[in-house]
């Protein structure tokens, strides 16, 4: 595993410990290769129905889609505890070496935070890493249903105008609300929209939505670990076909999150949770 050369390795180690990264700069290379992780594991058996863990039927199409990804070559690796530099010194913990306290600190430290500096851009390579973190979510049948759109620059204003039109179509007439909506996506340097691809099978689609939501949590945790503020938004715009089209997603895709992302100007207000109620069923 590399100890250097990755622009983000120091930030995302806790997540990417078992993954070997080779990063490519988008601008610096037109030769966009993206080998899929763990392809050799195809055919693993399912846990619940004993069927083969078959990849999506049009996997070659998916690989083609992934080949457009300029950023990373991923290879999953078995957990190995502490990695060695070769000289004997442990240089980075893998997931197996991440203690529970650190994991819980990250999980509980993530906050919905819109106190974002809109002027300070998020590096493209970091966005790529967040999306890569997302795709390691659990995913029944490995359908890889997640789709991402990074909305930056003037596109944020265009998306805001689209959001205002969606409100108008929904009967909203209040000019102040419409004006506020028009500029709302300018509150962050970027919006990362995450959608779920359509599937005609309702059970599969429900599972795909769950996988995408899990992926979004991966993404938010990775963002938190990178020091970014994030805010998961939804609403009428997210539910509109116009937004799906704007993001260049396949028709019928469902937008699951419109994530405001950027560097924090301040902390989010503290929040709390009730202790979970767990039904221990033992006989
Ligand atoms: C599916 C989903 C949709 C959400 N949509 C919105 C939203 O439209 N507006 C908003 O302010 N927060 C939205 N949130 C964020 C929650 O309001 C937020 O997680 C909650 O207030 C708890 O705060 P915390 O994330 O800091 O723990 C959404 C969260 C989820 C999981």
CATH superfamily of the largest domain: NADH Oxidase
Question: Mind telling me which CATH architecture of the largest domain this is?
Answer: 3-Layer(aba) Sandwich
What's the CATH class label of the largest domain? Alpha Beta
Mean residue pLDDT: 76
Count structural domains: 2
Sheet of most strands: 4 strands, antiparallel
Whole-Å distance between the termini? 46 Å
Q: What's the short version?
A:
With 283 residues, this protein is an alpha+beta fold. It has helices at residues 9-16, 59-67, 100-109, 124-134, 154-169, 175-183, 202-225, 241-246, and strands spanning 19-23, 72-76, 82-84, 90-93, 146-152, 190-196, 229-233, 254-262.
Account of the 3D structure:
With 283 residues, the chain is an alpha+beta fold. It folds into two domains: 1-98, no CATH class; 112-283, 3-Layer(aba) Sandwich (NADH Oxidase), CATH 3.40.109.10. 33% of the residues lie in helices and 16% in strands. The protein contains eight helices and eight strands, in the order αβαβββααβααβαβαβ. It has helices spanning 9-16, 59-67, 100-109, 124-134, 154-169, 175-183, 202-225, 241-246, and strands at residues 19-23, 72-76, 82-84, 90-93, 146-152, 190-196, 229-233, 254-262. The strands form three sheets. Strands 5-6-8-7 form a four-stranded antiparallel sheet, sandwiched between helices. The chain has a two-stranded antiparallel sheet with strand order 1-2. A hairpin with a 5-residue loop joins strand 3 and strand 4. The longest helix is centred in the C-terminal third of the chain and has 24 residues, at 202-225. The model is unreliable at 1-75, 78-85 and 87-93 (pLDDT under 50). Flavin mononucleotide (FMN) is lined by residues 111-112, 232-235, 268, 271.
């Amino acid at each position: 595993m590399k100890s250097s050369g990755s622009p983000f390795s120091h930030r995302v180690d806790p997540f990417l410990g078992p993954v070997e990264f080779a990063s490519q700069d988008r601008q610096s290379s037109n030769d966009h290769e993206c080998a899929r992780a763990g392809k050799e594991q195809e055919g693993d058996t399912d846990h619940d129905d004993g069927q083969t863990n078959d990849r999506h039927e049009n996997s070659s199409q998916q690989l083609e889609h992934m080949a457009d990804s300029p950023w990373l070559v991923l290879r999953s690796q078995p957990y190995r505890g502490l990695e060695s530099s070769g000289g004997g010194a442990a240089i980075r913990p893998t997931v197996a070496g991440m203690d529970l306290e650190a994991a819980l600190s990250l999980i509980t430290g993530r906050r919905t935070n819109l106190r974002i500096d809109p002027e300070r851009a998020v590096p493209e390579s970091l966005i790529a890493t967040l999306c890569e973190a997302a795709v390691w979510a659990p995913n029944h049948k490995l359908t890889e249903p997640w789709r991402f759109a990074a909305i930056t620059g003037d596109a944020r204003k265009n998306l805001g105008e689209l959001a205002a039109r969606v409100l108008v179509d929904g009967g909203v007439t209040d000019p102040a609300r419409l004006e506020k909506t028009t500029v709302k996506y300018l509150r962050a340097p970027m919006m990362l929209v995450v959608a779920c691809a359509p599937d005609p099978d309702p059970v599969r689609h429900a599972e795909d939505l769950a996988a995408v939501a899990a992926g979004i949590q991966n993404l938010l945790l990775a963002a938190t670990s990178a020091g970014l503020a994030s805010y998961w938004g939804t609403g009428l715009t997210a539910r509109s076909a116009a937004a799906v089209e704007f993001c260049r997603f396949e028709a019928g895709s469902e937008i699951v999150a419109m994530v405001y992302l950027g560097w924090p100007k301040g902390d989010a207000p503290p929040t709390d949770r009730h202790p979970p109620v767990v039904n221990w069923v033992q006989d």
